[in-house]
Amino acid sequence: MVESGRGRNIVALDVDVVRTPSDAVLSARLLAISDAVEYWMDTHRPDVVAIERVFAQHNASTVMGTAQAGGVVTLAAAKRDIGVYFHTPSEVKAAVTGNGAADKAQVTAMVTRILELQAKPTPADAADALALAICHCWRAPMLARMAAAEAMAAEARQAYRAKLAAKAKATRAGAGR
């Protein structure tokens, strides 16, 4: 959980990692994640939620687990009408370190520096979560501008189509005389 200030200023508010036993049944693991996420969202009331975008990896079970956990978080946010944004691992690494192929140690070091933390966040998943939050805070203004531009383009397309339809209707009416 972070708070974004002016410019690139970000303050760490809280961080936690939900751990579930690897031998637990899937439904119990997802329930544990859901309970933790529900608690965090009700306690901190975030404006937005950033989630790592899952992409094909060599380990299908890791991809599935990450996607399922992301789905639980997305659902909890949707229940509260909180916007959800997805960022790829390379986007996060590039935003935080300047290198989309940075390793965990580089990401952790930069998160520690950016957030002016006294100690490195542990475990590594905590640093990854904070990096994801930093990435979103820094990319959010660009994402908002892109969404506004897309909305303007959609309006312009609609107006242009209406103009063409009106012109075609007028042409047909003139030909019918």
Automatic annotation (TrEMBL):
It is an enzyme of class 3 (hydrolase). It is found in: Cytoplasm. Its EC number is 3.1.21.10. Mg(2+) 1 binds at D125. CDD domains: RuvC (cd16962). InterPro entries: RNaseH-like_sf, RNaseH_sf, X-over_junc_endoDNase_Mg_BS, X-over_junc_endoDNase_RuvC. It catalyses: Endonucleolytic cleavage at a junction such as a reciprocal single-stranded crossover between two homologous DNA duplexes (Holliday junction). Its cofactor is Mg(2+). One of its GO terms (biological process) is DNA repair. Mg(2+) 2 binds at E52. It comes from the Bacteria. Signal peptide: none annotated. PROSITE patterns: RUVC. Its main location: cytoplasm. Binds 2 Mg(2+) ion per subunit. GO terms for molecular function: crossover junction DNA endonuclease activity; DNA binding; magnesium ion binding. GO terms for cellular component: cytoplasm; Holliday junction resolvase complex. Pfam families: RuvC (PF02075). The RuvA-RuvB-RuvC complex processes Holliday junction (HJ) DNA during genetic recombination and DNA repair. Endonuclease that resolves HJ intermediates. Cleaves cruciform DNA by making single-stranded nicks across the HJ at symmetrical positions within the homologous arms, yielding a 5'-phosphate and a 3'-hydroxyl group; requires a central core of homology in the junction. The consensus cleavage sequence is 5'-(A/T)TT(C/G)-3'. Cleavage occurs on the 3'-side of the TT dinucleotide at the point of strand exchange. Belongs to the RuvC family. Homodimer which binds Holliday junction (HJ) DNA. The HJ becomes 2-fold symmetrical on binding to RuvC with unstacked arms; it has a different conformation from HJ DNA in complex with RuvA. In the full resolvosome a probable DNA-RuvA(4)-RuvB(12)-RuvC(2) complex forms which resolves the HJ. This is Crossover junction endodeoxyribonuclease RuvC. The lineage of its organism: Bacteria, Bacillati, Actinomycetota, Actinomycetes, Mycobacteriales.
